[in-house]
Design a protein that fits this description.
It is built from eight helices and eleven strands. The longest helix is centred in the middle third of the chain and has 19 residues. It has a single domain, classed as Glycoside hydrolase/deacetylase (TIM Barrel), CATH 3.20.20.370. By secondary structure, the chain is of the alpha/beta class. Helix 4 links the parallel strand 6 and strand 7.
Length: 228
């Protein structure tokens, strides 16, 4: 079974998260908004009683070294509400910036607020992306009819996480979870996440893969892998 994960927004808590993932050699995609990163760390909003800080521009390359970078739009707007000109700027300009900053191809996209439309999908495809992640929970997640509507199994803190994991494992499917590291508001949540990452890494039936690799295969090879 292949396991993929996806984390959004480029916040300071990702420093601890990436260190945790590296400790267990767990691959992940990080979805970033280059238009929202200032030269230094900045406080962006509150999550309950917690201040959420974005990483500074100059530390991004170091924090996300060796991880897949995906486009989350330039400034995180609700894309279906935008004009065609603003839509192109949010999608195409953001991809160009991320590729310049990280010196790697950026082929994935993640919809801000999970919002998309046919026009948004057309713009994402035209800008050169090969997949786009939604927040829709589906089972199974792969293979899928439309790579620009890539659903997930669950969030990282879902009480049914292990049930969904075992269900995917039983049919050798792809297991896909996601979240925001700022949601980890106490040590108990960090401990639980580390337990999950460690257990998956120790599972001989599981393999961490980058999201992009799922779309580097032909439809025929995708189907054959999920049937094994």
């Amino acid at each position: 079974m292949r396991v993929v994960q996806s984390w959004d927004d480029g916040v300071v808590d990702d420093v601890r998260l990436t260190e945790l993932l590296q400790r267990y050699q767990a691959k992940s995609a990080f979805n970033l908004n280059p238009g929202l990163h200032q030269s230094q760390r900045s406080c962006s909003w509150r999550y309950g009683d917690k201040e959420v800080w974005r990483l500074g521009r100059d530390e991004l390359a170091n924090v996300y070294a060796d991880f897949e970078i995906a486009n989350h739009s330039l400034t995180h707007p609700y894309l279906p509400d935008l004009s065609s000109t603003d839509l192109e700027r949010e999608i195409r300009d953001s991809r160009h910036l991320l590729q310049d900053w990280f010196q790697q191809p950026v082929r994935g996209f993640c919809y801000p607020f999970g919002g998309f439309s046919p026009a948004v999908k057309d713009a994402i495809r035209a800008a050169g992306h090969v997949y786009a992640r939604t927040v829709a929970e589906v089972d199974p997640v792969f293979p899928l009819a439309d790579p620009l509507e890539f659903g997930v199994n669950c969030r990282f803190a879902d009480p049914a996480f292990w049930t969904r994991y075992e269900r995917a494992k039983a049919v050798n499917d792809v297991f896909f979870f996601w979240g925001h590291s700022y949601e980890l508001v106490n040590e108990a949540m960090w401990t639980d996440l580390e337990h999950k990452i460690a257990a998956i890494s120790a599972d001989p039936a599981a393999e961490w893969v980058n999201l992009e690799t799922l779309f580097a295969e032909s439809p025929e090879s995708q189907k054959s892998k999920t049937r094994r």
